[in-house]
Amino acid sequence: MTTATTWSSKMASLRLTGRSLCRSSYVSSKSCRREGHLLGEDEMAQATITPTLRGDTFASTFTEVAHSNTLGLRNDEQLRLFHLSIQNNRFDHTALIKFLKRNVGRYVFSRAEYEGYKQRDDLEEVALDAVNRMRSQQDGMGLGEILLYVLLEQILEAPKVMSKIELNQARGQIHSRCDAIHLLTPDGQRTTSSIVFGTSSVVGNIGDAITAAFDRVVDIEQNRSDEVQLAEQTVFTKTLDPATANYVKDLLIPKPGGAPVFDTAYSMFLGYDIGLDPKNYSNQQYRAVLDQKMQGDIAAHAQMIANEINTRNLDNYSFYIYVLPLNEVDVDAGAIMDGLVGGPGGSHV
Description:
Blueprint: H1 2-11, E1 27-28, H2 41-46, E2 48-49, H3 58-61, E3 63-65, E4 77-83, E5 86-87, E6 90-91, H4 94-108, H5 111-119, H6 123-136, H7 143-154, E7 160-163, H8 164-169, E8 180-184, E9 193-202, H9 206-222, H10 224-233, H11 242-252, E10 262-273, H12 283-311, E11 319-326, H13 329-341
Parallel strand pairs: 4-11, 9-10, 10-11
Antiparallel strand pairs: 1-2, 3-4, 5-6, 7-8, 8-9
């Protein structure tokens, strides 16, 4: 790939000195490098890029709903359903807003920026500064993007490279169509790393949400080389801390005379109206029928998702899809974001 070759020539002159890999919380290794020395190949093979999310309260915030539907793809797939806690036949936002507030700095700021707050012992300010940055980008920021980040890090275990906010901040000659860029690294079953391009769609009708999400995926696919270049460019900017940059460089950018060895994959967050009238059920009945309704919704649309992948010639890619219903998308999405950034729905603490 010509883009990767261009960046690899720049890498020939890049040297990271004077900082130990052990100082970064984002890259772990069984064998840390000594001061002023580069990581060897054996050490690099042991290193892993770690998530940024603080997910210890995820299980008390999100409830997963089991189902038996698959997409039947040749490559990896996830089709996962979640809902928020229920109070009096309505989804309650309280725990979600608290969860997002705990993670807003990790979402908004680059790894290098967040590391700077830690080094300055100034973590008290990180959430407030993050909220202020989000307020400045409200026209390009919504609930779907931040929930996509949460689910990719917590469920897929794919650490972020750049969030939607970071992509907006980095906007220059390249305009990203993505809502997120994450990195899925090899594990016991996967032998190749994947750049995961993310999109989100929060629309009242689940079918419309699916169609809109795949329209976005096609747009990303048509500009995939630009999106890969954005991921590669993080190595040469201050977006990543030095140790993480070195790790990403070794994964995505070929050594002189070599070729990049990674795949690309797609992820999406789908939000939609649950479509249950709370007046028709007792509290106990509502909780029981909710799972049935979600299982029915995905059973009715799994084939639609598979058809979108196949008819749009996207069947060579892995897909990771996460679905979460709301009471009313037009009301709830705004209320949750207001609660997060300190608008009418709540204040930041």
